[in-house]
Design brief:
The protein is mainly β. 9% of the residues lie in helices and 38% in strands. This is ZPC2.
Length: 338
């Protein structure tokens, strides 16, 4: 009873204070300094002010009776999250006021962000092709994985709600080949881990690198962070709902700059026309995506007679959560119907 009453009183005072919070943020190279000035009613609760999981590193009582909480922490502390947004690296956290013990509601939250330009040629650690040995043309090592929505790591679940985005990452270890351009020549979704003549399939990429799904919905190739990797950003589609789905891709590698009708990554952009991912000024090579793209080209980098590498991602499970919630609602009504 006392704790609840205390929380209600503090909340009322906080709302009455009403003004914009007096918060100053200074972003350094790998850390942040935050100064949070609070009015006198909150001074007794200085220990309940947090930056993420961290308490103030310094507290000062001002002559006016107000107080100032100082937070000076590295991004490796306080549970900061790191996100990649296009050409930027973003570190996020939040200031919070918790008048009661952990587990009780937070009375106030204020997001804190530090945004930095991504270094040229920088590769996120989790996307680094790794330390495996790759020697000669025959030992290229390919990888494919499903990333989380923030593109900050490999997804922790293989269950994807219908309509949500699933970033599919592919990369090639290229230690003995500098540099290589990785392309998705063809990708299909199937309900089986191995493709056979009877497999039910949904074509995603075809016609030598044309992202066909971008004509049907919101799908693009994301800007590259390195030529040896590519991220297919695609909306979960209505295929094999509730069952296991596997993404089968034929990955090919070329000498960087060797773009053409048979070696390209093309997608339909907002303007409704095909665009070449790696050089929009040469998007004319994508014009064949609506017909048939020529396959007359020199062989890709690899064993003689080998055009690429077939890799499989899965199983993934695409679920229509709205249908599931509607079924639950109907089932909970008297008589089981509306």
């Amino acid at each position: 009873g006392t704790c609840l009453y205390l929380g209600a009183v503090i909340l009322a005072v906080f709302i009455a204070a009403g003004a914009e919070p007096d918060i100053k943020v200074v972003c350094a190279r790998d850390s942040v300094k935050v100064t949070w000035r609070v009015s006198s009613p909150f001074v007794p609760y200085a220990a309940r002010l947090f930056l993420g999981s961290c308490m103030p590193s310094k507290w000062q009582l001002l002559p006016s009776g107000d107080g100032e909480a100082f937070f000076d922490y590295k991004f490796s502390e306080c549970k900061f999250t790191k996100q990649i947004r296009g050409k930027n690296v973003v570190y996020r956290n939040e200031l919070s006021f918790r008048p009661q013990a952990k587990g009780r509601p937070v009375v106030f939250k204020q997001p804190i962000e530090c945004v930095y330009k991504r270094p040229e040629g920088w590769i996120p650690p989790f996307l680094n092709p790794g330390s495996g040995v790759s020697e000669g043309h025959s030992n290229l090592v390919f990888h494919m994985a499903l990333l989380n929505e923030q593109l900050t790591g490999v997804a922790k679940t293989n269950v994807i709600p219908l309509g949500s985005f699933m970033p599919i990452w592919a990369a090639v270890e290229q230690k003995s080949h500098q540099p290589l351009l990785l392309l998705m020549d063809e990708c299909v979704a199937a309900t089986t881990p191995k493709l056979n003549p009877g497999s039910q399939v949904h074509q995603i990429v075809g016609n030598h690198g044309c992202l066909l799904e971008s004509k049907r919905g919101s799908a693009v190739f994301l800007p590259r962070y390195h030529s040896s990797a590519i991220i297919l950003y695609i909306q979960a589609f209505n295929f094999g709902l509730g069952d296991e789905v596997y993404i089968h891709c034929n990955l090919v590698v070329w000498d960087e700059g060797a773009l053409g009708q048979s070696r390209k990554a093309c997608h339909v952009k907002d303007h409704g026309s095909w665009e070449l991912l790696d050089d929009p000024s040469r998007s004319s090579v994508c014009s064949c995506c609506d017909s048939v793209c020529s396959s007359k080209a020199k062989r890709s980098v690899g064993e003689s007679g080998t055009s690429g590498y077939n890799t499989v991602l899965g199983p993934l499970v695409i679920k229509d959560l709205s249908a599931a919630s509607n079924a639950t609602l109907v089932g909970s009504l008297p008589g089981g119907s509306l």
